[in-house]
């Protein structure tokens, strides 16, 4: 039983490592004082040359129609735009 448990743990560890390598991101060191690394591609991009997804200001999901009627921080048009200096939960 102990051999099976050890084998299972080793196999699980290898699978986790392989998954991590497959999903690994490449980062660029811009020499920032904070040491923050910058991604080498945009969100949703398959390669550094790809555009990736588009997002409306303040929104966290991409969409295909960018219009005042679909903007979460407006109630249908630009005249009802929600303004705030603090984080707001739009619709």
Q: What is the fold's blueprint, element by element?
A:
Layout: H1 2-22, E1 27-29, E2 37-39
Antiparallel strand pairs: 1-2
What would you say about this model in short?
The protein is an alpha+beta fold and 91 residues long.
3D structure, described in words:
- With 91 residues, the chain is of the alpha+beta class.
- It has 2 domains: 27 residues, no CATH class; 37 residues, no CATH class.
- It is 23% helix and 7% strand.
- The chain is built from 1 helix and 2 strands.
- The protein has a two-stranded antiparallel sheet.
- The longest helix is centred in the N-terminal third of the chain and has 21 residues.
- The chain is elongated, with a radius of gyration of 22 Å.
